[in-house]
Amino acid sequence: MLPFRLRSDLTRHRLGDVELALGLECHDGSGALGIRAGWSREQVSTLDSEFAMEPRDSWHIVVDRHVLPKLLQELWPLLGRSSTPVFPVVELGSRDAFRAVDTFVGADPLPLADFLSTVQNLQTLLLEDAHLAFGAYSDEDVPSEVFVDHWKGIALTVRASARERVETILEAFDLAQVEETWSKLDDRQAEQVLSIRNIFEPIPSGIPDPALLQPDVDHFLLYLRRCWSLVPNLEDWESNLDEAGRSLGRCLWMVQAVVRGQKSNQRARLVMWAQAAHPRALSKTLLDWAKDHPEWAWEDELGTDRLSWEDAPPEVDLARKVVQGDHVLHTVLEELDPLTADLVDLLAKEFPIDGTRRERFDGEFFDGESFDGESFDAID
């Protein structure tokens, strides 16, 4: 059974005429956000670099939270038939020192019906958790996308010829065109008056600090990554850029993963700090390190982020003085917390992985490699 249950102590907030997701909490000044129920539309690029493309419309739609599931049920078919291949997309705030948002996309397309099956099973959580934005896009014929943003507005991109069909759907929900659904505030401004809170109920345990067994967005993302085979969405695995497109060169990376002892079958959290020039180099560095550590098998990635050197532990500073190039600088094995351990065990049963192929952090695979370590100590 999944450990995700909605908290019962949350009060739903409203902004103007819009009922918000439970994961959003309003503060003084939030009325300035200017949220309005309705829809806006603009035309997007009409010409691809290689061939003429049918014009597309970009819609943004805002509705009450209780209306959102019914409206989405009408909009998802705009992506195609039940068999149409789509790529799931998930976004959430990043811990990376050089970007604000992490985007994950399906490594391979899956039928729209399969994507919607997972959405249906997790819909309440997906629509209440403001940490996550999610949706799917189709590359067939004219690229189309249905995407639910962090604030639970709908971003819709479809061919212009579907305009009448979309307007008919929106009219059935008594939604009218407005000049703008959100005032022109960026996310940083919005976050000053509208905060995001954890929606998950702690798992009953009787322990003094129930927060120790409270799922959060990281646990939810771990489940979604396995459901939809999500991998980081990077345009170029062989460059290392910040949000402004500036090259960072070789920098510090921290990778967290769940590993399992080949002999003991015991799981642990592996934390690795490495210096690498870009994601592809980091992947190769981890694989090279794995060849020297065959006793721990990789099971799940918990996060990969770039850090500033000021945030590095002392062991990393010492190691970087004596190594050059792409290199693992420091590693630590820690005991898994019970909640993550139970979730990983559930994932292993629900989504078994071929034991001869271990998933790499970038969604690719390597054969027969695993990790080493005899105790929960540093294993450099």
SSE topology:
Layout: E1 14-15, E2 18-19, E3 24-26, E4 38-44, E5 56-62, H1 68-75, E6 85-93, E7 101-106, E8 110-111, H2 112-128, E9 132-138, E10 144-148, E11 154-159, H3 163-172, H4 187-190, E12 194-196, H5 217-228, E13 230-232, E14 251-261, E15 267-276, H6 279-291, E16 296-307, H7 314-320, E17 327-335, H8 338-350, E18 357-359, E19 365-367
Antiparallel strand pairs: 1-2, 3-12, 4-5, 5-11, 6-7, 6-8, 6-9, 7-13, 9-10, 10-11, 14-15, 14-16, 15-17, 18-19
Write a short abstract of this structure.
The protein has 380 residues and is α+β, with helices and mostly antiparallel strands.
- What letter string, H or E per element, gives the SSE order? EEEEEHEEEHEEEHHEHEEEHEHEHEE
Question: What is the tally of beta strands?
Answer: 19
Q: What shape does the CA trace take? A: globular
- How large is the share of residues in beta strands? 25-35%
Q: Calculate the mean pLDDT score and round it.
A: 87
Q: Counting H and I runs of at least 4 residues, what is the number of helices? A: 8
- Gyration radius from CA atoms, angstroms: 22 Å
Structural commentary:
With 380 residues, this protein is an alpha+beta fold. The chain folds into two domains: 1-233, no CATH class; 245-367, no CATH class. It is 22% helix and 29% strand. The protein has helices spanning 68-75, 112-128, 163-172, 187-190, 217-228, 279-291, 314-320, 338-350, and strands at 14-15, 18-19, 24-26, 38-44, 56-62, 85-93, 101-106, 110-111, 132-138, 144-148, 154-159, 194-196, 230-232, 251-261, 267-276, 296-307, 327-335, 357-359, 365-367. The strands form five sheets. Strands 4, 5, 6, 7, 8, 9, 10, 11 and 13 form a nine-stranded antiparallel β-sheet that branches. A four-stranded antiparallel β-sheet has the order 16-14-15-17. Strand 10 (144-148) and strand 11 form a beta hairpin. The longest helix is centred in the N-terminal third of the chain and has 17 residues, at 112-128. The chain is globular, with a radius of gyration of 22 Å. The model is unreliable at 355-380 (pLDDT under 50).
